[in-house]
Amino acid sequence: MNTEALVVARNLRKEFPAPKGMKSEPIVAVDDVSFELFPNECLAIVGESGSGKTTVARMLVGLETVTGGELSVRGEARNKGARSLADRRRWAREVQYVFQDPYSSLNPRQSIGDTVRASLALHAPGNPGQRELKLKAQEILDSVGLAAPFFGKHPHQLSGGQRQRVAIARALAADPAVIVLDEAVAALDVSIQAQILNLLSDIRAQREVSYLFISHDLAVVNQVSERMIVMEQGRVVDAGNTAELLANPVHPYTRSLRAAVPRQGWKPVRRERLAS
Amino acid sequence: MSEALLALDNVRAVLHTRHQSQALLNGVSFSIAKGEALGLVGESGSGKSLTTRAITRMLDPAFEVSGSITFDGAPVLSMTPSELRSYRSMDIGMIFQDPRAHVNPVHTVGDFLTEELVRNRGLTRDEVEHRAVALLDEVGVRYPERRLTQYPHELSGGMLQRVMIASVLLAEPRLILADEPTTALDVTAQSDVMAILDEQRRARGLSLLFITHDLELAAACCDRLAVMYAGEIVEQGAHVYESPGHPYTIELLGARPSIDERLDRLPVLRYNRDIHEQLKAEA
Fold this sequence. Notes:
- Chain A is 35% helix and 22% strand.
- Chain A is α/β, with parallel strands linked by helices.
- Chain A has a single domain, classed as P-loop containing nucleotide triphosphate hydrolases (Rossmann fold).
- In chain A, the strands form two sheets. Chain A has a six-stranded mixed sheet, with helices on both faces. In chain A, strands 2-1-4-5 form a four-stranded antiparallel sheet, with helices on one face.
- In chain A, strand 4 (68-73) and strand 5 (76-77) form a beta hairpin.
């Protein structure tokens, strides 16, 4: 690809200190992870729970500090935390995050119109007035399939799929270059999941945005992403074009993940004993 | 068909509130034979979990339950409190979606596994621990003796779900109710837990009611499937997955992304309450 990468990770490392009172080594959650995310693409990070995929995403948005390696967005290093509030805000404008659980990621006391408006007020260019903000918020909610009557509603009045739409709208309000989708459809019903996946592809058809899509569900990953990296115990063990990797998995770990997806004629298989 | 262990016939659960009455289970009928696994599939709000609560009579008193539920010939809805207690503790074993919400975090795994049998069945703690260790080993938990002294937070989700399966098997029930037992797990742990559940169930000839939103998973692990929508079973049988007959089932199957091919857009379910009512009226 000749375009410049939006997000570059080089030998990224994250250690968590050992539990208090234990004389053990620190826990290495992410170890030597490198990847690039280009404009207007969807890169999936795939792995089991505990593989470190969420930690990578959290480092990208500054929710975790970086222990070692390089992490940059548009050429600007993010290893060290933001130095000023203005930097912090600018970084947030570039990378937005949609969490797995739409029940805990929205403020229950804020109406969904206000949720989106607050994000707009922080990030919108110029200094838009209240009226303008409201109109813009309505427009964004409309674009994720939530019509005007939803504006004044509160999260408890919405279903899981509708809440996830609000979370996506909030992310879009910042007009980000990258949206991190951390298991964003895992908690949804099959029918709602299909709607949200379609919405994600519609958004990409309308504006330039890249997704960092974190998931353990390879069928979903196949539907949304062009490239994927596979993580196991903090390391990247496999990477490449999603369709090719899934059609012809070579690495044993990718194969085992692929084999665990229920499909026609599938039977659950038991692995060896678990030690943890 | 062999003898039914559990049979539901036209079960209705009507929720009475101050303003309205709403039927959340609307004539549910199915049966599970001895040693059979039935997959109850549906989306959130379709009434799957309500059905299990009706079976164990754990529905909120605000529900008015009618129809008949029989377990091995005994009418569940008219059991006395002591019959109900023994039915719940001896005949039925339950596995839930979130094992962490089901265990007491301040008690060890050993306490959790032994408490019920020591208290209610007059066994000694040593005897139960001995059996628990053997069972933990069977469900694929390494170092089972050490686990007994550990606390739930020290175990992973997949591991804790195996402990749950062991705890259910310890009580030697005749029917296992598994309510979304793998939804909180990732695909590999899911495959693992389902394989263990399936293998143990078959070895002991237990019946299973497996509740899930995942048609593919249910088809792989169950002898028969029943698909629920809006408190009703729209379709049931052994070949629902291979050759679905009901429009809802067909659309539900189509909406799931495939690992083999990428679609331009996923088909979105058009099936709704109106179509549902219309279909019922026509039938």
